[in-house]
Amino acid sequence: MNLWKIVLWGLAAGMMLSSCTNPIEPVDGDGDGDGLDTKVSGSILRSDNLSPVANALVYDQGSQARDTSNADGSYELNYRLTSQYATKIIASAAGFKNDTVSVSLSPGADTTIVLRVRADSTSPVGGTSSGKPANIVLVGSSAENIGIRGTGANETSVITFEVRDSLGIPVGGSNKVKVQFSILGGPGGGEYVFPVEAETDGLTGLVSTRVTSGTKAGVLQVYATATIAPGKTIKSSPVRLTISGGLPVDNRFSISRTVANIAGGVFDNLRATINVVVGDNQGNPVQAGTAVYFTTTGGIIQASTGTDVDGIASVDLITGNPRPPNGIAVVTARTIGDSGAAIFRNISVVFSGPTRIIAPTTAFEISDSGEYSFAYKVQDPNGNPLTAGTSISVTTSGPGSADLEVIGDNSVTLGDTDDPFWTTFFVTVRDNRAGGASGPAAIKISVTSQNGNVSTSINGIVKPGASVISVPPSAREPAQIAIIGNPTATDIFIAGVGGVENSVITYEVRDSLGTPIDTSKRVSATFSTSFFPNSFVQGGTVPRVIPSTAVSDNRGRFTANVTSGTQAGVIQLVARVQLPNGNVIVSQPTKVSVHAGFPDQNHFTLFAGNYAFAERSPSAGPYLFSVLVGDTFSNPVPTGTAVYWHSQAGVIQTGTTNGATYTNADGIALSELYTVNPRPLTPPFFDPAFGVGYHWVWAQTQGRGGRLITDSVLVLVCQGPITVTGLPASLTVPRSGASSLIPFEIRDGNNNPLPTGTIVTASVSFDNTVSGIKFVVGGDFSEQFPSYTVPNAGFARFPGAGVTSYQVRVSDISTGGAPAGSSITLTITVSPPGLGIRSFSIPGTVVP
């Protein structure tokens, strides 16, 4: 122990003796176990570079506890308290000025206190003080993607570096250094950094610059360098930024629909969402808010909307008059590109009408052990297929039906389709028992559909065994190909994603009586396929059939194995057998869906349930976010694809097993944000480019080859109090006229917009007991619509008309005009979700 420590301990002992007469004693000294253990812990740091200080004396001014700091600066003071205890904690170290913190301790409640002993030129240089600069490290950027100059998007990103010594300690004090910034590999549109040189902070070693975009899109790299000795320079790793957000171009304008077929020929107000994706000539989303205009040949459609940050615009096609003559409504989406060029795309949606069944009308006959085959149609009056979920069944009834079996399209459920292929079906009704039941029978086709439930019957007879006529040997030749059971999988996944990649279909070759052929009649089969991609995206490999040919076995059976490629869609397979006499027999077509690949950045979209919202306690519930994840071919990724979430502020779900952060069958994953600490009120928990209250939520996953796929959304957390500015102390209304237009602003306590769903109401009160006297509000409000609700839209995050800016006036519409001097009161009521309700009243007078 050195002399300085002996002196410090002596001072502490003296203070302990001087306090022994203190009548208020928080420490239980009788050893009977009363009181609660209470701890004060923390660390002792230098004030100049925040490095730990060892061997510092830490003591309680009330002389109840003391300790000496460890090599890492940590210390611990232990108490046993029976009541609240107010004192001061003091840190003292040789060569430094003391630091003192006042504290009030509660029994059983531990406290953490960091003490900073003040250093000056006489203070020792500790082993953990920073050395000379050795490297430059990126610690953060305000935005990784900025917009082209002049498009209205965010054009700047603040980049912050930290200069460290060889031990990784931020440089400070006399070791601070000037850092130069430069751009390498930019698109050459006038982008720049400012400042080009700055000095590191003497305490933290941090230094920042701002990157501003130019007039061209592309990727740039920012380097930070510093000369630490003649001929010796240190340099950061490159910081990569993307400049995007140009004007729309024709070859990056896409349109899609959520459903292909709705019962618009039957019902009004059914909806199909039309989505448009708009990109610039660099393949980036266009500027948020780019207008897209829509028209339709059937029903009605919302006229226009603006793109979001991902270049996506969505509207609803609503069924109603006019119904398109052929039952197919064509939607056209238009926008304006560079130099005012019009860009448009079309897509069709079926307005399917009432259910119609077309089936044979003549009576049928089935001989003993025979069969009856026929085709039938289920469609609307325009020949279009019915809506998704339509169920079709074919059954038999009557005395002669006991041994009948229906095979083929006897139980069909339609998917969402506009393909006329799904209007024609084929069944075979077979008598499975020789000498069995006979007599009248009926074949019933039943359709259950949103388009309408309809059924029809075909009457006939099953003949008794005596009617069986001996069949010549020629009837035992191969005559038909049947499908045995169902494919092993009707849905397979593209190659390489870990899902089922193949489906096996079993066929059986039968003679004209429906009996399987044997080895003596063995045949060779070939397969033909038709592939219908789910997207117009180019590239990828189509599914294939293995083997390309097959030979029937001793039961007349052979199999086909459908194996996926890297392209999604629907494959239709038909088996064919060419007979020795030249005839060809074919099977019914079999469909297998191929879908779900790796996540793709161009098909990864994050949505906020609310763009602006108030803080609320966890018991009030979180705010919902969702991400839609698709593959390269615009299909949902496999169910259970993991999505990782993080947020600049608050706490957000991630890594759970209840489905919250794993995709469902539609490629959607959900997460919930709790608006708790850290709040977006202090750095780094808000985005400085937007200000206090604004912060980012990110979602990310992995694509092919481990490539990072990510998207983010900016949200606004609103806080009270509600402020209204611009309202006058009073107003005047000319008799039979209108007051001047009054502009006013409504904002939250951070000068930001109020939450989504805020209702602003303007009303005027007056003496309505006088006959004929009446006043109404105008401007952004009216007698019919006195309230305005802030929409849940991206633009509502930022100040502007209908968000923070409003106008109101009061008009006298009294019969003959209200008497001069009449009194009125204009009241503005603001009701933001989660922030309470405030009303502001302005008195007024009628003047001549």
Write the layout of secondary structure elements.
Blueprint: H1 3-18, E1 36-46, E2 57-60, E3 66-68, E4 74-81, E5 85-92, E6 99-105, E7 111-117, E8 135-141, E9 145-147, E10 156-164, E11 178-184, E12 192-194, E13 197-199, E14 206-212, E15 218-229, E16 232-235, E17 239-244, E18 253-257, E19 261-262, E20 271-278, E21 291-296, E22 300-301, E23 304-306, E24 312-318, E25 328-336, E26 342-351, E27 356-358, E28 364-366, E29 371-379, E30 391-397, E31 404-408, E32 411-413, E33 424-431, E34 439-448, E35 454-462, E36 478-484, E37 491-493, E38 502-511, E39 524-533, E40 544-546, E41 549-551, E42 557-563, E43 569-578, E44 584-586, E45 590-595, E46 604-608, E47 612-614, E48 623-629, E49 644-647, E50 651-652, E51 668-674, E52 694-702, E53 708-718, E54 723-725, E55 731-734, E56 742-747, E57 759-766, E58 775-779, E59 787-789, E60 805-812, E61 823-831, E62 838-847
